[in-house]
Sequence to fold (314 residues):
Amino acid sequence: MIDTTLTDLLTRLHATYRDLHGGTLASYIPELARSNPDWFAISLVTVDGQVFGVGDVEQLFTIQSISKVFVYGLALEDHGRDYVLGRVGVEPTGDPFNSIIRLDEFSKRPDNPMINAGAIAVTSLIRGADPTDRLNRLLTMFRRYVAHDVFMDASVFTSERTTGHRNRAMAHLMRHFGMIDDPIEAALDLYFQQCSLLVHCRDLAVMAATLANRGTNPLSGEQALNPTYLRDVLSVMYTCGMYNFAGEWAYKVGLPAKSGVSGGIIAVVPGRFGVAVFSPPLDEHGNSVRGIRVFEDLSENLGLHIFGHCTLGT
Fold:
């Protein structure tokens, strides 16, 4: 597909869905409730470094749950596949992202790293000499993915830390059943900090393109993730990345993806490109309303579903 055709497609998608209304802002995090519901951006970055975008592609927002993908990759690099799998499972739940179901003495570990309980457990595994060192390691890791320094929104961090009682309850339950270790508050602070990092839609597309490019940032050429763990990250994105909409997403869109309650969604087309959509109004699952429609349309238009070319043998 030539560049002008791809640009035209993104422009058409933006024009088609910018007047799509519905959904609500994530009001349970007070700072996110102040987002402009009209913000809307689509960005695509290819593995050879071409960048396309339309709409509010440079509007900053906090990364929220999309951070879970990349912190999971760092935990795998820190400890290896077998150790991390022993601490956090990889099973889809069908439950909301903030569910506390199955956090008991029989479960042994959170179901997967894309729900909040699993993500908190993963964040608690990040190595470092002290909380500052661990935060700096996360910031350095995110810089490799976006090719520039990343900063935290202090007001969102404070908002999440002050109101995150459910996440705190999950952490204490997991500590009670031996799923995570002390200090709990340090792990929670780091989790709230990672969710409060500021990105824009083009950043997210570069991050997705880095995963599409075997862990190498296509803009900087820097290795952001050891390719050994790429399959692990993409697998849990495909099966668990869209909350309790993951099955329908896999059926309709068919790409590894991750959403966040600030309105971002990323998707990875391995070996080709990464795509990001940003639009704050969310559906009942916590996914961007416009984002879902854009990806369904884009997957159909470009034939992106990973099983789209399967045929029966004769």
Summary: The domain at 3-64+199-302 is CATH 3.40.710.10 (Beta-lactamase). The longest strand covers residues 41-46. The chain has twelve helices and seven strands.
